[in-house]
Amino acid sequence: MKPSRNTLAVALLAALAAPAAHAEVAIDVIHDSEVSFEGLIQADYNWFDSDVANLNGDVPDGLDSDQELRRAEIVLKGKGPGNVDWVVGYDAKADKWLDVNAKYKLGGDSNHYLQLGQFKQPNSLEELSSTKNNDFIAKASITNTLAVARRLGGAYSYGTNDWSLTASYFGRELTRNLAHGSGYGLRGTWAPINQGGNVLHLGVSYVDMDTDADTVRLRARPLADLAGVRLVDTGSTGILNADRMSVIGLEGMYATGPFKLQGEYMKAQVYRYATGVATQPADAYDADGFYVQGVWNLTGEKFGYKAGVPTTPLPDNPGSGMWQLALRYDRLDLNDGYLAPGATPTAAPVVRGVLGGEQSSITAGVNWYWRSNFKFMLNYVKVDSSRYISSARADVDDDPSIVEARVQFYW
């Protein structure tokens, strides 16, 4: 169901009525719980210089651009009673629940936490970082394709600001007809350097989950959230006879003063059972990818670090704001198979395994954080992709360029 115009209007008016402060808006103390209100409004514009596929293909208007309200998030938070913190979040644009959970601190000075409800699972440094402070308009391909985001479940965590261990068990997403498949996740982080504005972060994560429908489909947009097609895709029928899927992630981040270097590698493995179909063997299917990115605060603000993720500072001078330059290299490989000769010399070759394609990209961006509530982003993306197309009997290269812009208001 699409959100009504009235729903989006109410969300926007609530945002504009909020005072100009970065922190959440305090509402009241209700039953010993300090209740506050947060929000995020994002509007995106994408211009496509398509190569082979029409990146605006889902809109039959002949245009080479698209614009859309990307997010309209409303979040209520509470501190208390006692050692309990809770949150209820909803995205009116996507018509889905966000974080809806309660977190309990075991003991007054304890570093042990229990969390129940819907929350981001313990994997992916980029996925766990705050959406309002994304370094680029579109998240990396591995984050959108292989990372597990919000699910209903329970988690236990223990650690300090220098290290952490988290274990979770999860089921489906709270909103109906979205992500499903039960599983578990583990993540450990360590910051051997964490003082004086210098941070070195290392992390490893592992997620294992049931495919639920015995099929898995992996695909990725060309680093543009409004693109109507995916240039790499394991196919509309998915990876058949799939039993379970696991994803291992390695992450690293080094921040020194106004500069941050960050990267992640993920490898997914789909465990399969035999069906007797030659083109869908019982062999496991593997996919992997990585990204490396750097961000420089031109105005000198220093990056921070909290709970195993980097934090973005507010502008030192709110009137002129904080300027950032960002550069990212991104790669995703969905190929795990080969072409076998056809039955006759003129027959089409037969795909053994899965040939979902390969995609790499370079993204250059400039961000402007103005005052405490506004952010403006401009990205240029150059994509290089290749995928076997059965109708062409060959690998088809598709190398588009994209210009992306975002306006954001948050409190």
UniProtKB/TrEMBL annotation:
<dbReference type="InterPro" id="IPR023614">
    <property type="entry name" value="Porin_dom_sf"/>
</dbReference>
<feature type="signal peptide">
    <location>
        <begin position="1"/>
        <end position="23"/>
    </location>
</feature>
<dbReference type="InterPro" id="IPR010870">
    <property type="entry name" value="Porin_O/P"/>
</dbReference>
<dbReference type="Pfam" id="PF07396">
    <property type="entry name" value="Porin_O_P"/>
</dbReference>
<keyword id="KW-0732">Signal</keyword>
<protein>
    <submittedName>
        <fullName>Porin</fullName>
    </submittedName>
</protein>
